[in-house]
Write a structure and sequence with these properties.
By secondary structure, the protein is of the alpha+beta class. The protein has helices at about 10-25, 25-50, 105-110; strands at about 60-75, 85-95, 100-105, 115-125, 125-130. The chain has a 5-stranded antiparallel β-sheet with strand order 3-2-1-4-5. A hairpin with a 5-residue loop joins strand 1 and strand 2 (about 85-95). The mean pLDDT is about 80.
């Protein structure tokens, strides 16, 4: 019961809704409706907890690198209804000697040329972009 000047919380509102459901629906059907309502309430509480946690962006790494090799791999699937999938790969060599190979989108594959030098951007050990030197 709310006292004068006291604000209604989500829990008070939920209790009122459940009471109305029991009155309107009766016994057997009310259980199903109340169960689904409680599950939805739990999911809402979990969502609110998750949304309060701060989001940390993954770190961006940039390397001075040269494009060593580009290649495309075509895979065929199926017999009656064959499906073709293209996968595009670029291999970079950083100035400190490391060899890095990444799967890239077709647009990136077509824009980047072999023996091109520039800055390679990587996030979570995945290709993010390549900016060639001018």
């Amino acid at each position: 019961m709310l006292l004068k000047g006291q604000k209604m919380t989500n829990l008070d509102f939920d209790a009122i809704i459940i009471a109305l459901i029991v009155i309107v629906c009766g016994g057997g059907m009310a259980f199903v409706v109340i169960k689904s309502f409680i599950d939805a309430h739990k999911q809402r509480i979990e969502y609110e907890k998750e949304s309060e946690q701060p989001y940390f962006e993954p770190q961006l790494f940039e390397y001075k690198a040269t494009v060593v090799e580009k290649y495309c791999q075509v895979e065929n699937f199926g017999i009656k209804m064959p499906e073709h999938r293209n996968a595009f790969y670029i291999t970079f060599q950083t100035y400190d000697g490391r060899i890095l190979k990444y799967g890239v989108l077709e647009d990136d594959y077509l824009q980047i040329e072999e023996n091109q030098s520039g800055t390679l951007a990587v996030i979570n050990n995945q290709f993010y972009g390549f900016c060639p030197d001018e």
